[in-house]
Amino acid sequence: MGKKLEDDVLEETETKKKKTKKDKKDEEIEALKIAVETYKEEFLKSKADLDNYKKRTQEERIKERKYAATSLINNLLLPLDQLKKVVSVEVEDEKLKNYLIGFKMINDQIFQVLEDDGLKEIKALNEEFDPNYHHAVEKDNNKDLPNGIITEVVTVGYLYKERVLRPAMVKVNEWSEDNNEEDK
User: Fold this and answer.
1) Dihedral class, residue 158 (left if φ above 0, else alpha if ψ from -120 to 50, else beta)
2) 130-152 pLDDT per residue, tens
3) 134 neighbors 166 (Cβ within 8 angstroms)
């Protein structure tokens, strides 16, 4: 009986070793499955981040190309505005009138090219003041007009595509009873 008991104990020990080995392998497999799932999630997150980065940089490049001429146009506006003022001067000399007509045509052509590229004049005169497009430089006191109406454009403003390139410098009506009483 001693031998049988010894064999049973030996067999039971071997079974426990097999179960322990099997349990260890199952635990390793489970740990590997968890690691694979974690790496898969990290990979998918990294892939999504990369896709978002690509989209963002693509959009930035499109905007850069779309507004590439902004600086050039902005630098041209002041001389073109001055040229527009010069060619609108009334003169008596016929020869000078003809020169001014020629310069006006050139000025108009340049503005047409700029407009074809996306430059638009901001409408301001007799419009309601909008701080997104207008910059108030003076106040007017006209009781015949409602408050907030632009009475004069000091400097023309421009949009380039959808962006404000230069706000319109304007004179805004701001009338109140207090102002009227001060005048008396």
Assistant:
1) beta
2) 999 999 999 988 888 889 999 99
3) no
* 170/154 Cα distance (integer angstroms): 5
What span, in angstroms and rounded, lies between the C-alpha atoms of 157 and 132?
Answer: 11
For residue 12, the 8-state DSSP code is: H
pLDDT tens-digit map of 39-95: 999 999 999 999 999 999 999 999 888 888 899 999 999 999 999 889 888 888 999
Q: pTM to 2 decimals?
A: 0.66
The domain limits of the chain are 1-66, 69-117, 118-176
CATH of domain 118-176: 2.30.22.10
Phi, psi for residue 166 in degrees, rounded to 5: -150, 125
